[in-house]
Amino acid sequence: MRMVAKTAFRVLFKKKPLLTELYKEFNTARAPATTMAVHEIAHYACPMSSQLLMIEDDARLAHMVSTYLAQSGLQVTHCADGKSGLAHLQNPESGIPAELVILDLMLPDIDGLEMCRRIRSLPGSAAQVPVLMLTAKGDPMDRIVGLEMGADDYLPKPFEPRELLARIRAILRRRTNGGRISSAQVLRFGTLEIDRDAHTVTVAGQLAELTAYQFDLLLALVERAGRVLTRDQIMEAVRGRELEAFDRSIDVHMGRIRAAIETDAKNPRRILTVRGVGYMFAKQQD
């Protein structure tokens, strides 16, 4: 029986290189000593029993990812297509809303990019759920488009399961982290108001549409108003740790943030570009 299982996995490996790494990680995590270490890290790094939604048409891959993440206290609900994924986001079977969505770019019924757009168009808090996109495409433009459509982060296939876990932890940590520089819950800069608790941004009383990741990017700049930050510094401040990332993704997000909070995004007065260095949030505005 064991030989049959190994043979089956070898067949899968040839089809999906990602499964090779997952299988190795899964087998390692099954060892008692390693499992204990993983759980100890989970208690420290992210909330226990966090509810995730994985929208992935490959049932075996979804099962292995779910099993691996469960070792760190992350409960994963799997939906095999976009339609069922959207339905779950609006009416979760467990009654507990998903705190993060792992979204495959290639789905059988709805394109992953279109899924991002539809998620951001959902009513209420469901539209604000962070989206981590998985893509097997190597073209950077696909990643840029994904971020433009509302994804908070992305991970190209094949990937290290530990990196997936690290990125999930970073996103969840951003949403629950209370260790900010300023203690004020509502930050005001002229007509711009940022409410930490509600995770909302308003301009002249009008709600600005931002993803969870874009909200955290803006907050990182606001908390360091008047300071020029490099892209690496911005990503480190937001993620809580340095992770390999596509550098230009920050530029994409900044463009979206400017479109939401600036009177004229082409001539910004709040988020300024310092050529050759990075970005700065202006203390004096309006």
Which terms would index this structure?
286 residues; Rossmann fold; Arc Repressor Mutant, subunit A; 2 domains; 5-stranded parallel β-sheet; 4-stranded antiparallel β-sheet; disordered N terminus
Order of helices and strands: HHHEHEHEHEHEHEEEEHEHHEE
Instruction: Indicate the radius of gyration in whole angstroms.
Output: 20 Å
- Number of continuous helical runs: 11
Estimate the global geometry from the Cα principal axes: globular
- Can you tell me the CATH topology of the largest domain? Rossmann fold
Strand order of the largest sheet: 2-1-3-4-5
- CATH class wording of the largest domain: Alpha Beta
Separation of the first and last Cα atoms: 71 Å
Structural class: alpha/beta
Residues in helices, as a percent range: 40-55%
Average pLDDT reading: 76
Structure overview:
With 286 residues, the chain is an alpha/beta fold. It has 2 domains: 2-176, Response regulator (Rossmann fold); 186-281, Winged helix-like DNA-binding domain superfamily/Winged helix DNA-binding domain (Arc Repressor Mutant, subunit A). Helices cover 45% and strands 17% of the residues. The protein has 11 helices and 12 strands. The chain has a 5-stranded parallel β-sheet, with helices on both faces. It has a 4-stranded antiparallel β-sheet with strand order 6-7-8-9, with helices on one face. Strand 11 (271-274) and strand 12 (278-281) form a beta hairpin. It is globular and about 55 Å long. The protein starts with a helix and ends in a 5-residue tail after the last strand.
